[in-house]
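re: that chain from earlier
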Amino acid sequence: MDKKGLGKVINENASKFIELAKNKEILVVSHFDTDGITSASIMIKSLKKLQKKFSVKIVKSLDEKFIQELPKDRLIIFLDSASGCLNYINNAKLKDVFIIDHHLVSQEVPENVNIINPQLIDGQKISAAGLTYLFCKSFDETNKEFAKLAVLGMIGDMMEKEINKLNHNIVNDSEIVKKRGLLIYPSTRPLNRTLEYSSNPFIPGVTGNSDGVLELLREAGLSPENGNYKSLIELNDEEMTRLTTAILLRSPKAKHEGIIGDIFLLKFFNKLEDARELSATINACSRLGETGAALKFCLEISNAKKEAESIYVKYKQHIISGLKYVSETPEKFEGKGFVIINGKNKLKDTMAGTIASILSNSSLYEPGTIIITMAYYDDKIKVSARNVGRTGRNVREILSEIIEKIGGEVGGHEFAAGCIVSQEKENEFINSIKKALELEVIKI
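^ sequence. v structure.
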């Protein structure tokens, strides 16, 4: 554990980075999810202000081959990634490397690597976008204008419920507008459309069901005005209470405090938007392989909004069909405290984590239940694991133990982790994960 505080480590690394960047071209390598894309966008905007020469690579995952092929003469900065690839970086003999990340560090940090990771300092929960923002702000105070991107990264990393405690200064820098209400997004669009595509929370009989939506709204006494329903933030207190009651009646396991909270609104493309919707739009572009569109959207490049929103519509359709598949598939193993859904080639690999997250945030399962989703891609299987209610056993540790025996890659956090295994090991993995989860139940 580093005795220096996080702030001091960030400042020291930022100074060293700026010094080395005087004579070197920079390569930014970032993860492809919302946190990684917003981290890359903050870095791009900051380097442009400094008039630095740089290039950007957005990656789904890092492996030894990719790292070996990185240019040795560049100043390389990894964002939201690389904490689990320190041995690969060392073996590749890269000279000047910086890592800004918040994932678990399980290997020794090589001498040529400058790392900012709270796991090595104080264990504070902060997104990579938050760390990247603080890093860029430390060498140029005017970079506080990029705080809103850091907030989108935090929300993308499911930290919105802890957003004030952990990142108070970043939130203040972002000039965010906060309102209290139902945690269904987007809060700025007509209610009927918002409810139909609501996946967090997932509402049984309503999500993905337009007839179910209209029935719910009738029960809540909400009617369209001039052909259009109000948006969530336009409801008065009485209307909000009626709608909340109607949703809770359909989700008996859901708790009132779990679906009511702070709604964050940010100015994007000169319009006040729901931060969760913006974050989900970025995520949608990346999950459907359109990382360029996601970056352009974050950089607020003209026409990017229309392109990103069009991709997001397709993505929401993928979610609805994914949830339908999950509810009907026979490829499901349910045990005490766990569910394993093997999507094979019927579930898009980039959707596996999204579906697992939606199910873990629904009221369908008890808190602590482990949701495992699997999907094919190339000759591999993408595995995502989530804990319902972000409580219970450490899924990263469970996956790590299995991967150590059968081979593959693992990453993520205590309650949201994933791994990649060969399709040849499919049955071995399923048997191993079932055994591990059943054993845990016996131990308890």
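The chain has a mean pLDDT of 89.
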